[in-house]
Amino acid sequence: MLRKYAIIFMVWTMLVSASLVWNLHQIERSSLNTAIAAARSSLAKDIGFRNWASSHGGVYVPPTEKTPPNPYLGDAERDVITTSGLKLTLMNPAYVIREVQENFNGDLGIKSHLTSLKLFNPKNAADEWEARALKSFEQGAKEALEVSNLDGRAHLRLMQPLAVTSGCLKCHDQQNYQVGDVRGGIGAYVLLQPYTEAQSAHSLELTQSHCAIWLVGLLGLMGVYRSERSYLARRKVDSQHIQNLAYYDTLTKLPNRRLMMDRLQASLLNSTRSQLYGAVLFLDLDHFKTLNDTLGHDVGDLLLLEVAKRIQHCLREVDTVARMGGDEFVILLDELDADPQNASLHVAVVAEKIRKTLTAPYQLDDKEYLGSSSIGVSLYCGSELSVKDVLKHSDMAMYRAKESGRNAVSFFDPSMQRAVQERAALEADLRHALSAQQLHLHYQIQIDNTHRPIGAEALVRWMHPTRGMVSPAAFIPVAEESTLILDIGGWVLDTACQQLAAWSLADDTRHLTLAVNVSAQQFKQADFVDKVTAALRIHKVDPSRLKIELTESVVLNDVTDVIGKMHALKALRVRLSMDDFGTGYSSLSYLKQLPLDQIKIDQSFVRDMTTDHNDAVMVKTIIDLAKNFHLNVIAEGVETEAQLSLLQDLGCMAYQGYLFGRPVAIEQFEMLTASLSTNT
């Protein structure tokens, strides 16, 4: 709407402006035409008098100082004496006209000038413009017109030709004119100042009137705009109110059943195209009827409002939560993952987060209430299932959660349910692993080209009392999806510094560096550098012996923040290594910015480099790149002598892999370093 009125405003402004410009032009033309008319009127009188005077042989007047005998007239009757003895001299028409103009038209701002290319009186010589006009008259022109400055003031100059009559020959016969010849021109020069002043006054009045008209139109347009905007706003409010009644719950303002069904149908169709899994969570509050019966429906409504807020805080903006009625809520998680296992794990995290959030105490008026919920989950991919089927499956899973004791999450698919239960059990066990001292550090040796030990990488291992040795591939992703990775990462950093302190006491190990892997969550902590500083200070460790390994995903998370922290670590003299280099989005631009000490070649390139030419080229490129940036380079996953030999030929500087030693406990590691030190 605003654009429409902006266009109308522009058109209105253009119309008023065009009218003003046109009228100003007309005023200017009218002013000039008035001056031209005055000039022509003056010329008409001058020419009329000249014709009358010449037809009577001229005008005789008494000679005076102002009108002496004309020396240019050779006529025998130039000077005569009347019968009474009065002396008279002949005054030719041109002289008379000039006298009249000087005496009478000067006050009117009009000057007159007679001139010719064949001069009779030198004082009447033509200027440059008059000469051009006279030549144009000889070629048939009837009038010449120009606006120019005379004596520093603007004048309209108008000249018309003078034709020879029989009466003219009395004074001009010596110039060999014939009757009808153009013998010269007569001009009227009008001062334009009075006309331009009148034009300016009129233009000002016209401009003011147009501005007033434009302003009145603008005010009217604004009034119409406000009226229409008010009308549309009322319509929008009414339409929104109708839509809210049709698609939103009146209490919680969440989408209602109808809108949820529409969005779920759209999600099923979108899933068919994208082949990404989605999920529906059917949530029912436990013992809600008891709350309503004991504390009243008003308190029950307060609980529903708080539940709606808590659920929304657990979801992404693209997710949908709807109140289906009573104490039932349905959550739609769209476009999760193409892999059903990953999708189910993601849903499990969200569902568990919602379940835990809803168990926190509620403050309902002046009463504290503890509640819980039962959540059923149904996954879908494509539109093979109908909307009703998906909702039915999640509803069935919800009742299974209630049957299992309430305050639980249940999946419709039994196999997924088992996977979720296994993950939940693994996470629960992992939460106790630190306090139960089930986590240990193993150390994998790193050597140089002389097979001399130069350090190790610290790798966390989990020895579970019943599960046995749990693979890092199994528990590290679980830790990273929760806050456990922060506790584990902090423990690894502290334990590594403690080990470095122990190594510093022996000549064989004080030169060793220890590499520690840091996760994105851990490095993102605002006080990460402070924690590293504290660990180094507490254990009195040489900072240059500690090496922090970062993956490219950590760097790309927030380049500005990462670079700042890396420079802070470098100021402490902590070493920095880029782990798994070449497997992500390796970029020369950020490699140039990062204060790295080392690049680690990923084992995926080392594994097949002796049989795959492309991998060998990749390894050589990484080594050359590291050298060009003056960085140390280490290869991990070295398992054969052939791999080692090729790496040495390519200029690699350090190595890590099963060829030299597996990750082992500290006692075995120190025995290995001792044997290698003895051999070298």
In short:
The chain is of the alpha/beta class and 680 residues long.
Query: How would you describe the shape?
Result: elongated
Structural class: alpha/beta
Strand adjacency order, main sheet: 15-16-18-19-20-21-22-23
Instruction: State the major sheet.
Output: 8 strands, mixed, barrel
- The portion of residues assigned to helices is 40-55%
Head-to-tail CA distance between termini: 84 Å
**Fraction in beta strands:** 15-25%
Averaging pLDDT over every residue, what do you get? 87
- Give Rg in angstroms: 53 Å
Which regions contain 5 or more consecutive residues with pLDDT less than 50? Answer: none
Can you describe this structure?
The protein has 680 residues and is α/β, with parallel strands linked by helices. It has an 8-stranded mixed barrel, surrounded by 4 helices. Helix 9 packs across helix 11 and helix 12 packs across helix 13. The mean pLDDT is 87.
Fill in the keyword field for this structure.
680 residues, eight-stranded mixed β-barrel
